[in-house]
Amino acid sequence: MADSEKTPGESGVPDAPGGAARHLRADAKRNIDTLLEAAKEVFATSGVDAPVREVAARAGVGVGTVYRHFPQRADLVAAVFRREVDACAAAAPALAAEHPPCEALSAWLRRYTRFIATKRGLAAALHAGDPAFEPLPAYFQQHLGPALESLLDAAAAAGAVRSDVDPNDLLRAVGNLCLAGSEAGACHSERMVDLLIDGLRYGARPPAAADSPPERNDARG
Amino acid sequence: MADSEKTPGESGVPDAPGGAARHLRADAKRNIDTLLEAAKEVFATSGVDAPVREVAARAGVGVGTVYRHFPQRADLVAAVFRREVDACAAAAPALAAEHPPCEALSAWLRRYTRFIATKRGLAAALHAGDPAFEPLPAYFQQHLGPALESLLDAAAAAGAVRSDVDPNDLLRAVGNLCLAGSEAGACHSERMVDLLIDGLRYGARPPAAADSPPERNDARG
DNA sequence: GTAATATGTGGAACAACGTTCCGTTTAGTC
DNA sequence: GACTAAACGGAACGTTGTTCCACATATTAC
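Above: the input entities. Below: the structure tokens describing the complete assembly.
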């Protein structure tokens, strides 16, 4: 097997084989950025099946430019997805710095909800078997899992939420809540997620006291 | 809501509004049949995304003929699906008449497995949100559920299999087995389904003895 | 600054697809 | 056999993903 295979880098940028990435011209870098931003908006509006031309038009570039940076349609979709995952993961430390642990956690979960909600058609695309989408679920879990874990740990340490929740389980649960009932509208998803967040609060144990049973009377928020 | 909505009939035939179906010309009836058969083969070979032209060519008709009977591509797919569900359901009584209960059951499950295995891409299509596909899951369950139930009941009455299995659960389980690991090849699916069938046999209770505890040493399938 | 050149760009052009259209053929009826 | 409504075939349309290449531009060397 020749390893000349395409190995898309971490973020949205197409490829950076090895360490020394081939120098991208400044305008190219700018265009890639514009394209990803445009694609994100278009996909959110018209679903991930939106035509490439529409993305190109919104970005103000020709289709040739799109295909220069993203050899296949699916590469563009995957790049947008990765970039949004990165942005969502990056929001975690920022929120943690600005808010108390429990607020940071719930704010992040709401942000994550919004992210999932703009992914109309992506679930179907993922299951369609396109090889370009195959590594996405792992990317998802590897980046979002730790981000959520840090928030969960902090909130649990502060005694604001229970401490027996696996971050990846929670990610998946929220994801399913938002995608499964996509017909019922976004507000339904949000309400369900709020419910889930309240569930986290239930059975929280106070910060210092280590082994006294938690104050689980009938906490309901 | 105007009920002039298209209400595709039971089997593969496009529509028969009300009771008196408009008389189809003999050649039309023949072509519909040929088309469904051709589409079944093409979809099995190239997946449900196969082009309409390919189906038309295989049936030896023009595309115009396809679209006369199936106004949309999805209608053709749905019709093929329903027809195969019907055929699969119809196989149950036939198998029950020719084989002892347990053999009939396992033979039918294998036939069902084959049916699922030829549905490459259909799972994705179902989740893609096309309105023409929306009623399919219900059709599936309503027709296949009772068919399997009768076989299960007969086999359980004969003491060949356990009696605590819900037919719809079993349908879904086999379906997931075959669709989820579609990359691993068909033989893997068949082996897993065989395992499932053996699981049914385990813990069967002899026909007459009504209330002696079943021979459930350490029931685990 | 200017020239040289690799790099990037735009959009016409291609192929494949779903779908529509309409001139022609054919089954049903008298 | 003649008539008519139904059905047929396939060319043609609009939309898509993708390729191609003449042209433009950033970068480098001088």
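Note for the figure: The first helix of chain A runs from residue 26 to 46.
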